[in-house]
Structures are given as C-alpha cells and as structure tokens.
Amino acid sequence: MSADRLSATLSALADPTRRAILARLSHGEASVTELAEPFAMSLPAVSKHLKVLERAGLISRGREAQWRPCRLEAAPLKELAGWIETYRRFWEASFDRLDDYLREIQEGDPRDRH
C-alpha cells in the first residue's frame, strides 16, 4: 500500500461519522438520504463525508435512474489490514519473547536449587 493511499484511508477512518457510514454500507448499498438518517446533520454535511470516503477509494457511487447508490469498496480496508498485520506480528513476537523471559525468571536457574 502506498503511503499516500494509506494516509487517505487512515484520514477517512479517523472520523466516527465516516466509520458509521462504512458500517452501514457493509450491509449493502444505500442512498445519501438513507445514510444521513441516523445523523443529526444536513445532507450537504453527509455529502462532504461521502466525498472524503470516495476520494480515499472506500466507497463508490453508482447511478440508477434518479437513484445514486453508495457502495462499500473494501480493497483499501484489506490493504490497511495487511499493513497492520505486519505490526501485529511484530508485537506478537515481542510478547512471546517476553513470556519466555518471564517464564525463565519464575522457574529460576536450576543451579540455584541446592
């Protein structure tokens, strides 16, 4: 994942409203009006959030007659998960080494048991 795309994805996900919109879209397509329903904000404000998500590649907008459905585009999330996985493996290995070290300390040196 390129640094610019990663930055765009993380920036888009930094806002709780945008995360809630993505959560809604994970259940299927929705119109701007449907996406705006749970929020106490204007349609133009919701549209601004959608533009951020669209620029980050997290959603796309279709056109079906008068309806412009929004849909989730999960590829950037998959790429982000892969980037995060690298660090998860690092921390998991670090914790495994710490577990081993703590076990050694608790068991003590067998030469000291006389």
From TrEMBL:
Residue span, HTH arsR-type domain: 1-92
Source organism of the structure: Kaistia hirudinis
Protein name, per record: DNA-binding transcriptional ArsR family regulator
Keyword Ribosomal protein attributed: no
Ranges in a coiled coil: none
SMART domains noted in UniProt: HTH_ARSR
Alphabetic keyword roster: DNA-binding
SUPFAM superfamilies per record: Winged helix' DNA-binding domain
